[in-house]
Amino acid sequence: MDMAEMVLVGEDERQIADLLEMFLRAEGYRTERGRTGKEILQLWRSAQPDAILLDLMLPELDGLSVLRQIRAESSVPILIVTARVEDIDRLIGLELGADDYILKPFNPREVVARVRAVLRRVRGWSPPPTWTAGPFRVDEQAMQAYCGDRAVLLTPVQFRLFSCMVRSAGKAFHRSELLDLFEEDAPDARTIDAHIKNLRARLGQEGRRIETVRGVGYRLNPS
After folding, report:
1. Of 1, 111, 159, 178, whose Cβ has the fewest other Cβ atoms within 10 Å?
2. What single string gives the DSSP state of each residue in 44-88?
């Protein structure tokens, strides 16, 4: 029998962490808990979770610093759970590579549903093996993107956007079309813009090939 997927709960408030772990375990997930930024990083390396729920206001090392360090090495799904309501915090988190942003107070069932959705995207993507456009190549079976000979580390959200554009290079995608990729847990138009900005940065100089089509959305130019 396959081992249940593990979710690392990065939360320093005991009652909130207890609540999240209770609902996650009720749905069959294993859990680990980190109370400080440094402890979360240690658990991420040792436990190798399938997803991370990450508070922003943590002792020792704040959540954005934790997110930045993990994203430098891993594309593990990370869902921010925070009381910070300002748009700038949301955009910074998404630009650093978060896959979702959940505000406190929250419905724990919704949090579990979002965890399930992002994990389903990761494990359930099984289209044809490879696509190429210009210097880009996408191996969808391995969930790996390449720019020339360089492997590019992308989050699940970034990978899905990039794969769609590589498969239909030259097509101008409306933001609404890109939103449709995310089914029931779709982000809004502003978060699509944040993910595209971060994707361009991950691709380096070749990121300029993802062009903004004024009044429409985005297009990948392979030439």
Report:
1. 1
2. HHHH--SEEEE-SS-SSS-HHHHHHHHHTT----EEEEES---HH
Quick one: 120 and 137 in the same domain? no
Tell me phi and psi for residue 56, to 5 degrees: -90, -35
Dist CA 165 CA 156 (whole Å): 14
Strand partners, 90: none
* Whether pLDDT at 122 is above 60: yes
User: What pLDDT was estimated at residue 35?
Assistant: 96
Contact at 8 Å (CB) between 78 and 101?
no
- Determine the Cα–Cα distance for residues 155 and 68; give it in Å rounded to an integer: 12
Q: What is the pLDDT of residue 124?
A: 59
Assess whether pLDDT exceeds 50 at residue 87. Answer: yes
Structural domain contains residue 1: no
Q: How many domains does the chain contain in total?
A: 2
Q: What is the CATH number of the domain that holds 198?
A: 1.10.10.10
d(CA 189, CA 205): 25
Which of 124, 142, 163 is the endpoint of a domain? 124
- Minimum mean pLDDT range among 81-95, 101-115, 183-197, 198-212: 183-197
Residues 78 and 27 in one domain: yes
Q: Which domain holds residue 119?
A: 6-124
Judge if 134 and 114 occupy the same domain: no
Place of tokens 């982000």: 187
pTM, 2 dp: 0.61
